[in-house]
Amino acid sequence: MTTEEKLSFFRELINCSYPLYHWDFDASLNLVSTNWQKDLFAGDFFAYMGFRERIQQFLADGKRTPVIIEAESNLLWIAGFVFSDMQPASCHLIGPVLGGRDTPMLIRKKLDSFELTAKLRATIFKIFEEVPVIPTNILNQYAVMLHYCLNREKHSLHDVTYLNTAHSPAPASRMGNPGHGGIWLAEQTLCKMLENGDPRYREALEQSFSLSDGVKADSGDSLRNKKNNCIVLLTLCSRSCIRGGLPPAIAYDLNDYYAQKFEACNSITELNDLSLAMLDDYVGRMQDMKNSSSVSAAILSSCEYIRTHITESLSIGELANRTGYSEYYFSHKFKKEMGCSVNDYILKEKLEQAKLLLAGTADSIQSISDSLAFSNRSYFYSCFQKHIGMSPSEYRKQNGKL
User: Does 366 score more than 90 pLDDT?
Assistant: First the structure.
């Protein structure tokens, strides 16, 4: 298929769900064609929206990620680029959309700040009323798919870059789907990774955001909604790190600092940038704290390996080989530093994961037992009963989130 054929097919697909328009530009960002018939957003679109220099700088930096551009009033467009020999050959926009349900009152207030005739004001407001609201998780998925359509390059949702005229690009947040059981499980996984200072937390963050569009209370202001979601994420992060050993005084001070910073943000792009900086700050402090603890690097590495391979059959011999120690020395060192035996630690981590799966999924108990490499269901039952104080089925009945 030619680029034009792929673009046409992609546009037909997304138009099955939302009435979106498109603009096609050449390598110099000159308009080539569009199906937009209204005067607003027509003509030299990039120039009067103030995006020409931002996009040119983005391309000059050699970046090749999916892009969403953000204008005032929370208007968003998906932007895709065709590259030839690493150079941009064309640019394609799809939109406009609203990332949140901006109320007519907010739009009217914005229009009131300009000296417009009553007719022009009514015309512009009518156009805004026709702009569809698309959850950010869906919009980011469209951006990733458009980039793949044009360049056959796969990206994850956290690779999406937001551009606006006031702030530097930042990876976008990912959200959407009301399946609360899946949300809870993904959220607990994220909290556990933050608690452990795991640098791969962004993978869990993407999974969590792909399931939920955040707080369901809609203020009617998409920027306010985004701030609310960022503050919820901040609270989860702060409490998780306290559980992981970060002194509460430090965690609360950071919480207050970033909450004020979130409130001062003026765009979704700025909020995305700050939220990732906040998470990196907390996780970095957790890593520094753990690295300076009395537990050696070899044992910390073994604990991390156990957590990330908890669905596999783990042996002391295998863990000892990874550290270069003998089984006897490794077992003795592990118990001295961690306060429990290797096998007890492995069992504890397996049971923690089992609790998450029992509460957050509809997987059968047999399936959970098998996925965590217990020798049989009976052994899983007896271990769970002994250490948790109730059977797996009782735990699910009391704590199920589905």
Answer: yes
